[in-house]
Specification:
The protein has about 400 residues and is mainly alpha-helical. It contains 18 helices and 6 strands. It has helices at about 1-5, 10-20, 45-60, 65-70, 80-85, 95-100, 105-130, 130-145, 155-165, 170-185, 205-215, 230-245, 275-280, 310-320, 325-335, 355-365, 380-395, 405-410; strands at about 150-155, 195, 255, 285, 295, 305-310. The N and C termini lie far apart (about 45 Å). The structure holds calcium ion. Calcium ion binds near residues 216, 218, 222 and 224.
Length: about 400
């Protein structure tokens, strides 16, 4: 959501590795199980900053009693600073991204959640004009259908980041918005938890987005995006997406096939054409008959899967301004609705391994007792450690890198 755009794209890797449940090289850690919440450590400079901030916040309409409640037990969280500092430029390929975002597990859980909550999602769709499976896809991407809502105390996290100062203005405004939420009575201070960067609840709203878009679906007077019951959060997301310009009935986009010799100059967001124009150029939907107007991208290059993106794609980008994320939401929504996996082939990676090769490496390592945390073909930290353990067991230099030579060695 706005979160990620404001944080800048470099934040995505770190945020998404938490949110989409990847990074370990296994979808196995998809459901449940968050690490223990970080605990504040004493920091006099932080305490002085909070004292000065409280004066500023009072000037912005936050009552002393709200602040007393909010800062009771709050404190400096060094882990949050560490997370913020360690954001790398690392960016997953679309193939890896989709392997995680629309893993078999996530699709299966999405279909199950959709079946159990179908009535609620249909009602939300009717009120806000955003398709039920699209709302479900945001839910799946942001918190793995509510199983990873984040347990970091948000006041401590935001105060720490505002104090730390790398993006002081942004985080101070989020902190003030968080205090307003507490003051409004939507949530008790000690229940306000979220990600290390202050994204909260089933669909990871940052405080300013919450103030602008959160909705009270249950009608109890509180907009509770933190509770087990996801209805307020899902309605809030539908409200956000609707207000961002979602057009009901229009797909987000679709996988398409491009004819041989398709000019790369026609690729790219912003180079929209009508469905008829694309047809004339030989573009066809990868499945089904329907095509829409929009622009075409092929994030892995010509020859890898290509997607025609509609105006609704830009709405998903307003939630989180990253192309892979938005394709992930769109594709996951299609899969939850019963659609098929991507048809196109991404081909070998930079080291010459296909996804099938990488999955075989993971399976062979696991069979030899080196746990890769599943075999999704994504070479994450767990797979790297498994490769290193295998290399060590053979007296080889520990590279942690998947290569054709490694695969050949494992097959022996
Ligand atoms: Ca409510």
């Amino acid at each position: 959501m706005i979160t990620r755009r404001t944080l800048g794209l470099t934040a995505l890797g770190a945020l998404l590795s938490g949110c989409i449940g990847g990074g370990s090289g296994g979808g196995a850690r998809g459901a449940g199980g968050e690490a223990a919440p970080p605990r504040p450590v004493p920091n006099p400079a932080f305490d002085a900053w909070v004292a000065a901030y409280r004066d500023r916040a009072a000037g912005r309409g936050i009552s002393r009693s709200t602040m007393d409640a909010a800062f009771r037990g709050a404190g400096f969280l060094p882990q949050v600073v560490e997370k913020d500092r360690n954001q790398t430029e690392f960016k997953r390929t679309l193939e890896d991204y989709l392997s995680i975002a629309a893993s078999d597990e996530r699709v299966a859980m999405g279909r199950q959640k959709f079946a159990s909550l179908g009535g609620l999602l249909a009602q939300i769709e009717a009120r806000y004009g955003v398709e039920a499976h699209v709302i479900a896809a945001f839910w799946g991407m942001e918190s793995y259908f509510g199983t990873r809502r984040g347990n970091v105390p948000v006041i401590s996290a935001l105060a720490t980041l505002a104090f730390d100062g790398r993006r002081a203005e942004f985080f101070e405004s989020q902190l003030t918005a968080a205090l307003k939420i507490i003051q409004n009575g939507d949530i008790a201070a000690d229940r306000m938890t979220g990600s290390w960067a202050g994204a909260m609840g089933h669909t990871q709203f940052i405080p300013t987005a919450y103030l602008a878009y959160a909705a009270d679906w249950t009608g109890d007077g509180r907009r509770d995006i933190w509770s087990e019951d996801p209805s307020d959060a899902l309605a809030s997301t539908a409200n956000y997406v609707a207000k961002s310009g979602w057009q009901k009935g229009l797909p987000w986009g679709m996988e398409v096939t491009l004819p041989a010799g398709f000019p790369t100059g026609l690729l790219g967001r912003g180079k929209a054409k009508s469905a008829d124009d694309w047809r004339m150029l030989g573009v066809r939907p990868a499945s089904g008959e329907r095509m829409a107007s929009g622009s075409i991208v092929a994030p892995g290059g010509l020859g890898s899967p290509a997607f025609l993106l509609t105006r609704n794609f830009a709405v998903i980008l307003r939630y989180n301004n990253a192309e892979n994320y938005a394709i992930g939401v769109g594709h996951l929504s299609d899969r939850i609705r019963g659609g098929e996996a991507i048809r196109g082939n991404f081909g070998p990676d930079a080291s010459g391994l296909t996804k099938a090769d990488r999955q075989e490496i993971q399976r062979l390592l696991t069979a030899k007792g080196h746990d890769t945390g599943g075999s999704d073909g994504v070479m994450g930290a767990k797979t790297k450690a498994a490769i290193e353990a295998f290399e060590a067991s053979r007296g080889l230099p520990m590279t942690g890198t998947a290569t054709p030579a490694l695969l050949a060695l494992l097959r022996r």
